[in-house]
Design brief:
The structure holds two protein chains of two kinds. By secondary structure, chain A is an alpha/beta fold. Chain A has seven helices and eight strands; from the N terminus they run H-H-H-H-H-H-E-E-E-E-H-E-E-E-E. Chain A has two domains: 2-112, no CATH class; 139-257, Cupredoxins -  blue copper proteins (Immunoglobulin-like), CATH 2.60.40. Helix content of chain A is 40%, strand content 17%. In chain A, the strands form two sheets. Chain A has a five-stranded mixed beta sheet, with helices on one face. Chain B has a single domain (13-196), classed as Four Helix Bundle (Hemerythrin (Met), subunit A) (Up-down Bundle), CATH 1.20.120.80. Chain B contains six helices and no strands. Chain B has helices at 16-41, 52-55, 58-83, 87-117, 126-157, 166-193. Chain B is elongated, with a radius of gyration of 20 Å. Residues 1-5 and 202-206 of chain B have low confidence and may be disordered. Classes of the chains: A alpha/beta, B mainly alpha. The interface between A and B is large, with 53 and 54 residues.
Amino acid sequence: MAHQTEHTTNHPTFMQYVLIAIVLFAITIVEFVLIWDRAGIVDHLGASKIPLLVGLSAVKFAIVIMYYMHLKFDNRLFGTVFIAGLALAFIVGIALLSLFVAFEGGQRDFAEANAIPYVEHGEEAGGESPDDPPVAAGPVAIAINAVGDAFAFSSTSLSVNSGDEVTVTFDNPSATNSHNFVVVQNGTKDAVAGDGAAAGPGGNWVPAGDSRVIANTVVVAPGGSEQVIFTAPAPGTYQFVCTFPGHNFAMFGDFIVH
Amino acid sequence: MAHTAEHEYTTTGLNHRKMLMWVFLGSDCLFFAALIATYMVYRGQSLVGPYPVDIINVPVTTISTFVLLMSSFAMVQALASTHANNKNAIVGWLMATAILGAIFIGFQIVEFNTFKNEGLTLGGNLFGATFFTLTGFHGAHVTLGIIWLVIMAIVGAKGRLGPDTALDVELLGLYWHFVDIVWIVIFTLLYLIGGFDAGPAALSGG
């Protein structure tokens, strides 16, 4: 029972509890006034209101766990157990925010800019060997062809360096089908092909003056061959595609600029 | 149960039930951290309204925050009354805490209803999904606390709460104050800081 008495006297008195309640009340008032537009303070604070508000809340948080939850007077092990959970919770929160928000430009842009297409071994036939050392900015020749009468390019992935003067030679060995070779912004192959359908064969099935189109050959008749010369754009992943109506769903690949 | 407290041997020398409550509260931090972090990750990512700035009412929620803070004060008085073995005060402060908690929940019901009428739903946009999930789980914690408070008030009215059973009230108090500090965090992040968010931060060009 002596222990009980000691326990009780360690706790704050009624007046101290009232004082703590007033402090908590006052901090909340201050927080509200800080962000209340009619008080006019928020306009002067700008972005500094966030650390200010977080700090004030942290003070409230600490007062409640120290005094109302008695951590200040209780065995330290209770506090350790709780703070361990709280610290882990902080780490989880910060890790999630870093993963999804902190990258410059937002998570979707980051993912798009850094995505590396998955290429299975053995699918490189006809394309460049990945062992070839990358050529510095300069003239680069790429040869690609349609596969017989199939709706497929001989390669599903091409890569160049940004700033390269790229010459693409596109052969169409098909006996029946016309094709073209168009480099477009990533993810836009079907949209460009859809819009290109309106341009018709006279417009090479490519929408005129479209910012999504990086480069294109004219339509290559069966048995023909055409070249297109262009400067490789900014590093990133692009697509190449045949925009002949319907072909775009099967004839395409990744055009990677390093 | 109460009479065993005098000679209880544990490896830590600390009461098991109290340790359990602190471990639970530590783990509940993680529960809320996941929901709060999800809200922050999707903050400003909703493509359709309503957006926070359209519907969040900071002055009204400041009042309900006061109410919850005051309920914590009533809770510490309930524990002090238990140590002082004052039956009427125990029941009175416990009921005062429960009523203040109920007023807070009343504010939340009105708020949810208003938001629903203004078009914010759980499935409508990212703001609605993350807002309702987070504040809804907090409201569920408060509701559980109110039920616990009323049960303890009934036990107290039967004269079964006093210095020997103060731990029963103390554990309830720890839970209740925890719910209060979680609200301190939610109020700051969702209302004071996030309550003025408009539409998507940046629409992608594609």
